[in-house]
Amino acid sequence: MSGQYRAVLLDIEGTTTSISFVKDVLFPFVRQQLREYLSSNWDSPELNDVLDGLRLQNETDIKDGETKETVLRNGTKEAEIESVISNVLWQMDNDRKTGSLKRLQGLIYRHAYAQGLLKGHVYDDVPNALRAWTESGKRVFIYSSGSVEAQKLLFEHSTHSDLCTFISGYFDTAIGAKGESDSYRAISESIGMKPESVLFITDIPKEAYAAKTAGLQAILSIRPENAVLAQKDIDTFKTIYSFLELY
Predict the structure, then answer these.
(1) Calpha distance 30→214 (Å, rounded)
(2) Does the predicted TM-score (pTM) go above 0.85?
(3) SS3 for 35-53, per residue?
């Protein structure tokens, strides 16, 4: 590409990692393990902190008319667990990306990765690209709707061994929604770089437009399973099939 960049900001799903790994492995794993995880860790302070956040989100959702079901706070353990499961599955069915949901998923993933039950998928070109970027003095960052912890776990326990050594930082939606230009301005400020010196790679045109509006350089990733891009998006952004095209 024509512009010079000092940092690379990477999306995960559809960019470094297959959509099917997220949709067909990670999400179903949470559904399968949710009850057992809650039952086994119910008294954990960390889990209880996450559940407090889930309850606060639930109160907001009820006020906003999003749901009528309450995540119980003072019921029996069994009743509270059932209410949590119902809420989590409702959120996942509706593809919600609330912080409390992502944190709970992150706890479950941490346990699974530690037990060797999961390995994070990354495309074969990703490790070499991460190495090449860092060896050339560029910094690599991740920005995903998944929690920071979930991001770290995926790259630490990837199918290509631990890749975290090549990654300088991680961002999730705590810094802002991925479709909002202010989020990319905030990330640029956080990493101490001018927006125009940051290259963002994603498979989602809306995110690419938001990054471009913020002043970042943006490229669209084309991977197997990704949605077909509209011609106007192909005309607007450079597209790549592999990170190897960038170095």
Answers:
(1) 35
(2) yes
(3) HHHHHHHCCCHHHHHHHHH
